[in-house]
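Q: Convert this sequence to structure tokens.
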Amino acid sequence: MVRKYTGATAPKDAIECDWHVFITEQVDASFCPIGPWLVTDLDPKNLSIKLTLNGETRQNSLTSVMIFPVAKLVSFISEIMTLNPGDTILTGTPAGIGALNVGDVISVVEIGAIGILTNQVAESGVKNIIDKY
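A:
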């Protein structure tokens, strides 16, 4: 059973809810940017989580109010699959982000002291291919 982790970073998992797009676009390079870097000296028990969409705060919470603590998630996942050094676990997100549109600017403003990860939503090349069929 794994009871420790290496560090924390700020991922943005942009999930597509349309099933046929989900299968193909989850592999698109823009669907899960991670960064800006890995911070190794953070205690995951009570980190702030803040996110803005086009400058408006859409998520503002703490890891301490997550349904499952980070340590419990790592322990559970390590019991059902092998975790190797470098593996990344996304723990979920507070409510509030909603739909994204091309041109939107989304920023993970804070997860502890990790830093800011900012991306602009762009049109996917994969979707353009699907639309041809």
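The helical segments are 19-25, 70-80, 125-131.
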